[in-house]
Amino acid sequence: MGIQVPFVDLRAQYRQLKVEIDAAIATVLEEAAFVRGKYVEAFEQAYAKAHGVRHCIGVGNGTDALYVALRALGVGPGDEVLVPALTWISTAETVSHLGARPVFVDIEPDYYTLDPCHAEHCVTERTRVIIPVHLYGQPADMEKLLNLARRYSLIVLEDCAQAHFAQYHGQLIGTFGTIAAFSFYPSKNLGAYGDAGAILTNDDALAHFIRIFTNHGSLTKYEHEIEGINSRLDGLQAAILSVKLRYIHQWNRQRAEHAQLYSELLADVEEITLPHIRPGCTHVFHLFVIRTPRRDELQHYLTSQGIQTQVHYPRALPFVPAYRRFGHHPDEFPVAWQYQHELLSLPLYPELTETQIRYVAEHLKAFFVHQRPRIVRP
Ligand SMILES: *Cc1c(COP(=O)(O)O)cnc(C)c1O
């Protein structure tokens, strides 16, 4: 006993980078480069270059990145946007905020991302955009989704909040669609020390619109070309992100190695389903998500052993109160409906130790060996 395994440990990463991060922060403070300015430009350029994309525009957070991208695409009342039934609410709420309708699509049983076949059934003459979410760090099925988009003239907006630098058949996610939204929320694979986000696109006109829209409709103070909003990446976050960008590949590798070890240690536990990696893809394991029908009992047991877990997500979006107005039925999203009761995210972050991983695996096994099911299914 005695080992504690937190779900994430953001302080561990800060301690490793303290010298570099503190220096970066001090420089921004000295120069008072708080809003826009050279540290923001430097990060935007580095992030665009790392993806081989023409434009990166920093924004206030990942939700704004989605909202602004949809706004730039001209989405509005009467439009429908396809979004996965299982994702963080940002993917859908930003659609509603523009007066359009989020149309939920079920997820693939093995990979948890937007199901291209179900998506095709959901297309109507009002569908304008499809938002694949690279959920848990795994690329969505981009080949099929791009095909679908081509056939029905849909615009592809990638939600990359959970999958920085994951690859689909050797190509980075965020470079497939017309536009891509990233979040740098602190616990994401590439995380700032507060809210931050970015948009990637190769489209000059979209990039120009986004630059002015997110800065009160102007590039030059008081020259408001349009009405906009205030959603900017700030200098401190940009300077921090520039430091962290140098480590992201190492961190993603460590995450994948930890996931591999979990999978090896848990391979013979019949009661759980381990994450599957889509063939030809890299999975950057923002989350390590297993499935078991005894999810709640298992979570309770692990908590009692000092192991923190979370559920992503306890309610698929069609069934949260915010979307009650659509009157959705479980039969419309059989996979998301069933999985919301079974998904469990185990602790996973780069600094997790082998001892901690083995401890989690041992207790998980012990649960299935020693704890009889309380509910015996007929
Ligand atoms: C985190 C997240 C967002 C939103 O990012 P914020 O920076 O928290 O606004 C959007 N989509 C998905 C899938 C996310 O996980």
Structure description:
The mean pLDDT is 96. The chain is built from twelve helices and eleven strands. It is of the alpha/beta class. Helix 2 runs parallel beside helix 8 (235-245) and helix 9 (248-266) packs parallel to helix 12. The longest helix has 22 residues, at 10-31. Helix 6 links the parallel strand 4 and strand 5 (155-159). The protein starts with 9 loop residues before the first helix and ends in an 8-residue tail after the last helix. It has two domains: 10-245, 3-Layer(aba) Sandwich (Aspartate Aminotransferase, domain 2), CATH 3.40.640.10; 248-371, Aspartate Aminotransferase, domain 1 (Alpha-Beta Complex).
**Neighbour order of strands in the largest sheet:** 1-9-8-5-4-2-3
Which structural class fits the helix and strand makeup? alpha/beta
| Tally of contiguous helical segments | 12
Domain count: 2
CATH fold-level label of the largest domain: Aspartate Aminotransferase, domain 2
Biggest β-sheet, characterized?
A: 7 strands, mixed
Small molecules bound: pyridoxal-5'-phosphate
Helix share bin: 25-40%
Mean pLDDT: 96
**What would you report as the Rg, rounded to the nearest angstrom?**
21 Å
What is the compact description of this entry?
This protein is an alpha/beta fold. The protein has two domains: 10-245, Type I PLP-dependent aspartate aminotransferase-like (Major domain) (Aspartate Aminotransferase, domain 2, 3-Layer(aba) Sandwich); 248-371, Aspartate Aminotransferase, domain 1 (Alpha-Beta Complex). Helices cover 39% and strands 12% of the residues.
